Amino acid sequence: MSFEIPKTQKGVIFYEAGGKLEYKDLPVPTPKPNEILINVKYSGVCHTDLHAYKGDWADHVPLKLPLIGGHEGAGVVVAMGASVKGWKIGDLAGIKWLNGSCMNCEYCELGNESNCKHADLSGYTHDGSFQQYATADAVQAAKIPKGTDLAEVAPILCAGVTVYKALKTAELIAGDWVAISGAAGGLGSLATQYAKAMGYRLLL
């Protein structure tokens, strides 16, 4: 299977924090040896994207500028870097907040890659999913089963991962009670569904 990849694409970019959002023609990125290139079909919008756009965290983590935001992207793998393993052209893939990490520090070795001092963040330090074609580290990109509705899975790549990890690391067992704060909101509604699927009793 092969795809015809254009030289240019449409995307949303800004050149300074809080500056004009420009919808324009942009070059299609070339994947590095460790990256896959994803033809983005759907992208969610997270409140973190607003923080990135406004530069709210730039004093702590430098913001890449210019920047294409977005970290809830779902699409199809259309190209791969030379060292990529475990993927093939045509696979469905997701772009998450964590685009890549060193995989060698204590945080990474304990499964807390998002705390890595060298973490590469989609839509913050790495151009994200608000474009037709985006790159992602092959190790951190989410594998999506064939036949999945990409429109439904896109927001799961941030909001869903956030609440799932919270429930997973709570070290609960089926039958335990779990309190979900803000259960009526976006993350809360996902947490409620996951908790029920895990066999927990809910305190809303």
UniProtKB/TrEMBL annotation:
GO cellular component: cytoplasm
Required co-factors: Zn(2+)
The reaction(s) this protein catalyses: a primary alcohol + NAD(+) = an aldehyde + NADH + H(+)
InterPro entries: ADH-like_N (IPR013154), ADH_Zn_CS (IPR002328), GroES-like_sf (IPR011032), NAD(P)-bd_dom_sf (IPR036291)
Superkingdom of origin: Eukaryota
Coiled-coil positions: none
MF-aspect GO terms: alcohol dehydrogenase (NAD+) activity; zinc ion binding
UniProt keywords, alphabetically: Metal-binding, NAD, Oxidoreductase, Zinc
Family annotation (PROSITE patterns): ADH_ZINC (PS00059)
Domain Alcohol dehydrogenase-like N-terminal: 32-146
Entry's family note: Belongs to the zinc-containing alcohol dehydrogenase family.
Protein's UniProt name: Related to Alcohol dehydrogenase 1
Annotated organism of origin: Saccharomycodes ludwigii
